[in-house]
Each structure stands twice: as structure tokens, then as C-alpha cells.
Amino acid sequence: MKSLLDIRRDLHRIPELGFQEVKTHAYLLEQINALPQERLTILTWRTGIVVKVEGIQATKTIGWRTDIDGLPIKEATDLPFTSEHAEKMHACGHDVHMTVALGLLRTFTMNPINDHVVFLFQPAEEGPGGAFPMKEWLKKEHPKLMPDQIFAFHIAPEYPVGTVATRPGLLFANTSELYIDLIGKEGHAAYPHQSRDMSIAAATLLLQLQTIVSRTLNPMEPAVVTIGKMTSGTVQNIISGKARLEGTLRTMDAETMTIIKQKIESLCRATEIAFDCEVQLDFGFGYYQVKNDAKLANEFLAFAEEDASTIAILCDAAMTGEDFGFFLQEIPGVLFWAGVDSPYGLHHAKLNPDEAIIDYLVPFVESYFRMLSNK
């Protein structure tokens, strides 16, 4: 296996979108196959990879999940190892995530712990979501590889290297995409009575959508309904026959997400009647909330507080989304933030994580897993 620094930079050069991670898949397998194979079981699923490291005296299986996809963003870092794929970038740190996973895999292959460790190299975290189908495949086809506990991390640009942050219970929100197409009848601006204006229909619907949080939901339940994009019309003297709204939904409670979607469906049907048009509603892909196991999260924070190289933070929950939540639906586990000290945030074209996180986090997680395995 190459040095971890070289691996991170190699992976940064080849970002690929969800379920298209062909080069990434091949590169990961090349590094995995360079390790001693005696204790390893290697399986592939679509562009994902599952690797089990046999424990010495296993009583359970500990899981470590990493995401492997990039984003449709044009990189603007000017790094010597900048993305070689046009309009694609590892702008969410998944290159760092994969590198840490490979470092841990190498460590436990060369110096195993008592328990089995299963590494899940999961595609399509950024969309359309690889966690749920990967979990279902494991349950059906390889149930013995399902972890008893599972862990993952996400880089945090706002924290310095050496900082980890998490919380027991809810960490990330439920999320859903939102796409609404309104189809009426185009017409000349001089004859509005002969058309069905979808600019007006879309604008009215947009305003109605903004009343859901303020007038439908319990004010004690945090939620977001955001329309980030609205398109309609062609030229100034033609009444638009088509319009489109694109947005996102985020809630801290799964039932609240159901209520919001039901209300949106009702408003869309009402818009069809009011404006004599057709409304096509698509919620796209959505992610289940990331809810950490309380006992494991508290134990993780306690371990981090005792580690001399680490600053442990009990952080607030956030409206961000992560499909790791689908694993945590059935498996006790913890997702935590790890600092990379960047002035640019996640999904920014200039994001450049401090690579020192790799040499810090691999031994930290190794020590934590050895503690878990000895319990």
C-alpha cells in the first residue's frame, strides 16, 4: 500500500459522482489487494467494497464506514494534485475519509484486534444515496458481515486538527429533495385569458410553501422548507406555460418530515384546481436522520476527553444530512466530526483540508477500537 499522504492526493485527483466511482473503486481495490490477505475477506457491491478483517478472539463485529463519491463542483484550489475530472471535485472531504479508512484497514490487517472489523466503502453518499441499498444487500446476502456497532466520521472545516465533536442522540436532520413542475398553457402577453400562466401559479405556490413551517408545524419542532431555485418563462412578452421549483426539506423528527410532505402534496393539488394546470411533484432522494446511540456516543466522548492529543466537543445538532443515518436505524453507532482547519466550508470549490488529520485520526480511532474490543 502507498503512503497515506500519496493515497489521499491520488484519490483527490479522481473524484466521481455517485455510483460512477469506477476509477475510485479500482484504486481502492489496488491498495486493499496490496495488503496481506490472510485475515481479509473482500466483497464488492456495485462501486462499493466491503472488507472484513478477522479478529483474534472475536465476540462481535465493529464496523467502519467511509463514503467514496465526489461532487459536481469545479475545483478552484490550484493544488498540484487538483481534480483531473472536469467539473468534479472532492469538495466534501471523501478523499480524506477514504484515506483514513485505508489507514485503519492497514493497521488492523498488520496488527489485528480481538474483534472482527468490517470496512464499508460506500458509494453515492452525496446522492442518490448508497447507504440504504448497501445495508439491505448486506442483510440479505451477507448477514454475517453486518456490524454489531458501526462508526464513521466527517471532516469539519471549522475545527482545528485534533478536535472531534459529536453528541448522543440526534446529530443530523432528516432531509429530502423537492422538485415541482407546473404545466399550464403558453400564450401571448396581449391575450392572458387564452393562457394559463405558470409564473403566477409557481409564485403563489412558493409563497404557500413558506407557510408550512410557520402555520402547520408545532413551533417547537425545528424544520426547514427552502426553495433555492425557481425557473419560468422564455421572453418578456410571452406568458409562461411551464415553471419549476427546486428546493430542500429538513427536519429534526421523522414524523415532521411526513407531515411536511403531506402538506406539500395538498398544496400542489390545490394549485392544480386554482390555476387549471398540471403539477408534477417529486421528492427526489431523502436521508434518514443521523441519531447516535447515546451510550456509545457518551463513551466515545469520554474516551476522547482522556486522549492527550484530542479536544473533545459536545456539539449541537445540525440541519445537515448524511445517509449514514440508514445504518444507524438498525445498528448502534456514532458519527462524529473531525477538524481539518479550513477557511472554506463543505462543498466549497476551494476546500483544502489540513492533511495532518490523517496522521492524527488513524491512531486515535485505532486506540478507540482496541478499547472497544477489549470490553
DSSP helix fraction: 25-40%
Query: How do the SSEs run, as a string of H and E?
Result: HHEEEHEHEEEEEHHEEEHEEEHEHEH
Give Rg in angstroms. 23 Å
Query: In percent, how much strand structure appears in the residues?
Result: 25-35%
Strand order of the largest sheet: 1-2-4-3-5-17-6-16
Look at the helices and sheets and give the structural class: alpha+beta
Number of extended strands: 17
Mind sketching the topology for me?
Layout: H1 4-13, H2 22-33, E1 40-45, E2 48-53, E3 61-67, H3 94-110, E4 116-122, H4 131-141, E5 149-156, E6 163-166, E7 169-172, E8 174-183, E9 187-188, H5 198-209, H6 211-215, E10 223-232, E11 238-239, E12 242-251, H7 254-275, E13 278-282, E14 286-287, E15 290-292, H8 294-306, E16 311-314, H9 325-328, E17 333-339, H10 356-373
Parallel strand pairs: 3-4, 3-5, 5-17, 6-16
Antiparallel strand pairs: 1-2, 2-4, 6-17, 7-15, 8-12, 8-13, 8-14, 9-11, 10-12
